[in-house]
Amino acid sequence: MFLSYLSFILTCGLALAQYARVHTPTERMRLLGPLAYADARLTFNCPALNPSPTIPTSVHALRPADIKHIASMGDSLTAANGAKAHSIVAVIVEYRGVIGGDDSLKTVVTLPNILRQFNSLLDGYSKGTGDRNNSKAGFNVAKAGAISSDMPTQANLLVERMIRALGAAKFAADWKLVTFFIGGNDLCGYCKDHDRFSAATYTNNIKRALDILKARMPRTLVNFVTVLNVAELEDLHEGIRCQTSQNFMCDCAVNKKTREEVRVANIEYQKSTAQLIDSGIYDTADDFTVVRQPFMEHMKVPALNNGLADFSYFSPDCFHFSQKGHEAAAIELWNNMMQKVGEKTTLWNLLDTLSCPSTGNGYIYTMKNSA
User: Which residues in 213-241 are b (16+ Cβ under 10 Å) and which e?
Assistant: First the structure.
């Protein structure tokens, strides 16, 4: 797959970007809301941004500021392929720091950078570029091209990497946050192999990975991000560059003959994983849980004021997210974490700003503490 992709981008050549694929300083301040200001900690009343008085003993009484280590699992979206690319060729570069800990919140909006505002000792986030074996990858074990069947391997890799880096005692004692996002490549292959990429197979692969994390990773909260609908790519299917790249990477989603079956499969993926996680099988202990974060469930391609697709949220291949897209996703993920289970937004709203309840105990919402 890697060689095929390399051949593809070299064939496409150095197609120059046509859009500013980052937020302006003003746009970024709007995203961050009160956190955009230097004195936010003094003026912004948000219990979630202050650590608990004592180290929590329950994942259902966990504040974001209690988290010591942050990790990620997934595919090229979580590896941030092409996030800062200005050409098709650069889409092969994994800009992991764009969803990790590059710079600071003033210039790169990421979940780790939000947490670092109030927990300077947070670790595990990626910096710079490189694959998951790069020294700067941290605990981001995502791999470009990954599908759901790769997730059990990623789960074991993550556990082993964390134990090696932290030592067994610290690994067991510290609270960890894992963001788990996979499924786009499964859907992109669905029309070619219904059995391999069925909803049942997909969900079983997810279960195997989550079971490994539950068995091997104490004091952990897993953000399971609901798979997005790749069939929405049709709104970006314009121009020779976009059409060529999308036909290469996800023809099942853009081909008029197969697009609808991918839509149906996507709904089944979402339903079956919701049933798995909402069943309560990951809520049987105080030191581990999985929370479904559904902000991409009904995601639509961002639009300009004239109704046309806003390509600035995507890399030059019209498939992966740009830095601007990743920043918007980071805000939505954070906001989902601050919303009760059953009340979480399922639609990516580009007008949203960082939200944090001024009342309550500041816990990350789980199934048990949302009642």
Answer: bbebbbbbbbbbbbbbbbbbbbebbeeeb
